[in-house]
Design goal:
single chain, Rossmann fold
């Protein structure tokens, strides 16, 4: 991205809607928030949560650290090939809120994230539906939504996610649309527990 990312007039409302959909689905205490921005989801989480946020934009992380000094933040654009830059910690939930569509090779990333997910851990994903593309482009150009909404490399769909189930990596335990069908939500449960159980 070669421009400064700016929120639009509706960005905060849309962000809050996503957070309200996601937070009831979080299980466990150790959370990894990929693409955490300024740590915007933290006020929606339990006070005692063990939170780690990662983002590639230093300016966003500086604000996050200032606003939430008791939480951990790491400066990295996460890709399938640089997970080794994170510690060997395991997480109960990994959040990919409006971020997976911006990553190179998201299916490989999801596969590799299993290595840092607890045996019963969950990955929670939100992503715009493909049919929302023209609307997001328009709304970003007129300043109503964040100005990176037209930069998606592609759109995540159910067949991509079901590939992970067919390969025995995750069970899809939630799959639905929200925001008038323009946004999608998946919760993937780690299948690793079935290997030992």
């Amino acid at each position: 991205m070669d421009h400064k990312i700016k929120d639009g007039i509706l960005s905060n409302y849309l962000r809050k809607t996503r957070f309200k959909k996601v937070t009831p689905l979080i299980k466990g205490n150790k959370i990894l928030d990929v693409g955490c921005d300024e740590g915007n989801i933290i006020p929606y989480l339990d006070r005692n949560i063990n939170y780690t946020g990662i983002d590639g934009r230093q300016e966003s992380l500086d604000k996050a650290r200032k606003n939430y000094p008791t939480h951990k933040f790491i400066n990295i654009f996460l890709t399938p090939d640089n997970l080794n830059k994170l510690s060997k910690e395991q997480f109960d939930a990994i959040l990919l809120i409006a971020v997976l569509e911006h990553t190179p090779n998201p299916i490989k990333l999801l596969k590799n994230l299993q290595t840092i997910l607890t045996p019963e851990g969950r990955i929670i994903i939100t992503s715009p539906a493909k049919k929302s593309h023209w609307l997001l482009v328009l709304l970003s150009k007129i300043g109503l939504v964040r100005n990176d909404k037209h930069e998606h490399g592609f759109y995540i769909n159910n067949s991509m996610i079901s590939t992970l189930g067919k390969e025995g990596i995750y069970n899809t335990i939630v799959r639905k649309r929200f925001q008038l069908g323009l946004n999608q939500l998946w919760v993937l449960q780690n299948r690793e527990q079935n290997v030992e159980g």
